[in-house]
Amino acid sequence: MLLRQLFIIHLTVIRGILIAQALAGVMVVVMVMIVVMVMVVVVVVIIANSVQQQLIIFRLSSNSPPTFCRGFSFLKGKTGLIQL
After folding, report:
1. What is the distance between the alpha carbons of residues 65 and 26, in angstroms, rounded to a whole number?
2. d(CA 60, CA 12)
3. Which residues have C-beta within 8 Å of that of residue 84, sequence separation ≥ 6?
4. Which residues touch 79 (CB under 8 Å, ≥6 apart)?
5. Distance CA 13, CA 6 (A)
6. Which of 11, 13, 32, 61 could be cross-linked to 79 through a Cys-Cys bond (beta carbons 3.0 to 4.6 Å apart)?
């Protein structure tokens, strides 16, 4: 009788350890996903900021809205603001 109770307690402890390991694995995966999402957001914000600054330079270089030809001349350095 005592041996059976000890065996049941042993199985319960093993089951608890397995559940705890599974939850720890899920938490690690969730934390890694959160870190990756934060890094992606930071990269997107940096890219958007640089694009916004380039658009401001485009607007400063001419009064008309930027077109592909203006952007190409801007890359060649014909506007005088940036010489590549």
Report:
1. 50
2. 72
3. 75, 76, 77
4. 61, 62, 73
5. 10
6. 61
- The model's pTM is 0.50
- The token pair at 72 is 């190409």
CA distance 29 to 12: 26
Q: Is the CB of residue 48 less than 8 Å from the CB of residue 40? A: no
Across the chain, mean pLDDT equals 77
Q: How distant, in Å, are the alpha carbons of 16, 23, 62, 66, 79 from that of 29?
A: 20, 10, 50, 44, 50
What integer pLDDT is reported at residue 31 of this predicted model? 97
φ/ψ of residue 80, rounded to 5 = 90, -10
Inter-residue contact 57 to 81 (CB < 8 Å): yes
Which has the higher per-residue pLDDT, 50 or 64?
A: 50
66 contact partners, CB below 8 Å, separation of at least 6: 55, 58, 59, 74
Work out the pLDDT band at 27, boundaries 50, 70, 90: very high
